[in-house]
Every structure is written in C-alpha cells, then in structure tokens.
C-alpha cells in the first residue's frame, strides 16, 4: 500500500569544516576544499534534494560566501545559511540575504543561530548571557523581517537601534526569504513563536520532540501565528539493518576514549546551550554502551560532534518508517547528513528516496545504461543494442 502522506522535503549538508569517513581522527580526512564542496552541491542538486544547510562558527568557512560561490554551479538547490545575529546589524544581513536571493533567483533561506559556545562568542565580540542572546535575536528579527518586507524601519530597543533604515534592493522571495531557527530553551521557543517560519529540532526520541513542538505551537498561537517544523539529524542507510549498524560502528571505529572525554569536557565547559545538554544527556555524557537512545536512533555522532549528534540507522524501509513517525508529529522537512557527505548523498538518494516517495517529478533520465557492464537499461529492462 502506498503512503498517502506528502513526501518530506529532504535537505543535505555542506561540510565547510571538512569531511571524512571516520569521526575523531585525521585518517581519511577531507579538507573543505571548494572543489569538493562544489562536487557535493552539484550532486545534491542533481539527485533531487531540496536544499543544503551551510553552518557557521569559527571552525567553518564562511557560509554566505560559500553559498554565493556555489549558487552559479547549481540550478534548483536552496541554500539555508546560518546567521549569527550578534556579529552584525540586521540592516547589513538584510542587504546580504537580499543580494544572495537575487543572485540565486530566489534560493536563499536563513537559519538564525544565537550561539551556545561562550568562548567562541567572546572571540566574535559577543558577551551576552544565554537569555540576553535570545532577547537580542528577537530585536534583530523585528528589524530584519520588516526591512526585507519593504518597510522603512525605526526601532529603539535595548540592543538594536535604527532610524530610517530601508532596503534599496529587495529580495526575490516575498515577503522575504524564509527564516528558520532552532533552540530548546524557553527563550528560544519564545523567539521561534513570534518570528520564524520553520522551527528546527535535533533528532531526539519521539516523545521529547513531540513535547518541544507542542510548546512552540502553543506559544505561536498566542501570537496568532503558525510555525512549520524541521528535523536535523544524520542518516546511515544501507540495504540491510546489519550493514547499516556495521557502518555506524565503522564511523567511530578509530575514535579513542581520550578523544570522547576531551570533546565531552569541552561541550560541558564551553557551551550553555540547552540543546547541547540534551544531546549529551542522550548518551550519558559519552558512554559507548548507551548509544541506541530510541528505535534506530543512534547517538554515536554526538560523542565528538557538537550540535546535531544523532543518526537514524537502518535499512531503507525502517529508516523511512522512523522518519514518518516524526512526520506524524508535524515535521515536514528533514536536514540530513552523512559521512562522507558526497558518497552518502548518493546512498541516501538511491536507497531512501524511493522508500519515502521522493522523486524528481516524473523526469526521465537523459542518459540510459546500455546492456553490457551493468546488464540492464536505466529503465530496469533489458534492451538490445546494435553491434556497431
């Protein structure tokens, strides 16, 4: 029986910090070379993913410049660009996103990141407390949204003051490029409810995600708004369950206990992010024997990676089933990734897309495989070929 639900929108990830086959080791590491990032973006664009997330932080190459460079090499791909409000004024970022939106013909989105690493934020000149960062983000979005919608803005806030601010070159998308946002704390949920179009959550057990989405819905209703929802996590999909779990084990096979301890200590010391604490709590602060935290939900990535630290692991039908369980909670977009990102983009598209009902709108591939090396045509039927 076919699934009647609308297929999920699936985004991928551009690894501007670097990539590789293993976590926590230099073995097999791939630098964030632009030629490699372009390979990923073009593959994802051709495979039928809806867009890509490009993160921000001192360990990342700049997402906005990267997107501007990648946009001319892609056709359909949307660029979800991480934006840290504290590093520049809303007027500056409004001009930036409007320019990228025009240059990409309406393919730009922003992901608001208030930031959870106090040491890194201090390096960017941001010395606000956790709750103050969300107060600042709210003021930022008040100005940013109105500018992009074409208003002339006067605003006198605690953190942001503008007078007669306006945008001379508007974006393509109306009223403005989409605003996405994630955060698990009460102040973050308040910002999401008042300002954003899509609220993102990391991959947590279903009951925890459900509670978070319900909190956003209730608060958004108080503002007379509705918010859509997205899920950020990793995918490890193979033809069989056994192969998928073997791939998960291989991903952390070169990861030392010392590396895990160092990463977990850094997260605990440097981060005041509620979401990061929730991620670390899933695997009990770095225990290898506590990595399966829900059916097919594996927390091994979070042993050394900050932020999104869970992966769905399994065969295509099982992973599709788990994603639909999140969809039943209200998720309509999944931002996925896998190591290494180039090969895993193909693997996920080839194995998982059919199970999720994701296609390319009936397009027929222009390049068919002839009988011979692979034995069948691109249509899946044997075809005769002339002996020329």
TrEMBL record:
Species in which this protein is naturally found: Telmatospirillum siberiense
Function: Catalyzes the desulfonation of aliphatic sulfonates.
GO biological process: alkanesulfonate catabolic process
Spans through the membrane: none
Reactions that this protein is recorded to catalyse: an alkanesulfonate + FMNH2 + O2 = an aldehyde + FMN + sulfite + H2O + 2 H(+)
Keywords annotated in UniProt: Flavoprotein, FMN, Monooxygenase, Oxidoreductase
MF terms in GO: alkanesulfonate monooxygenase activity
Protein's name in the database: Alkanesulfonate monooxygenase
Enzyme class, UniProt record, top EC level: oxidoreductase
Signal peptide start and end residues: none
Family under the similarity heading: Belongs to the SsuD family.
Gene3D superfamilies per UniProt: Luciferase-like domain
Organism placement in taxonomy: Bacteria, Pseudomonadati, Pseudomonadota, Alphaproteobacteria, Rhodospirillales
Pfam families xrefs: Bac_luciferase
Enzyme Commission numbers on file: 1.14.14.5
Gene (UniProt): ssuD
Domain Luciferase-like span(s) in chain numbering: 12-332
PANTHER family, per database record: ALKANESULFONATE MONOOXYGENASE, ALKANESULFONATE MONOOXYGENASE-RELATED
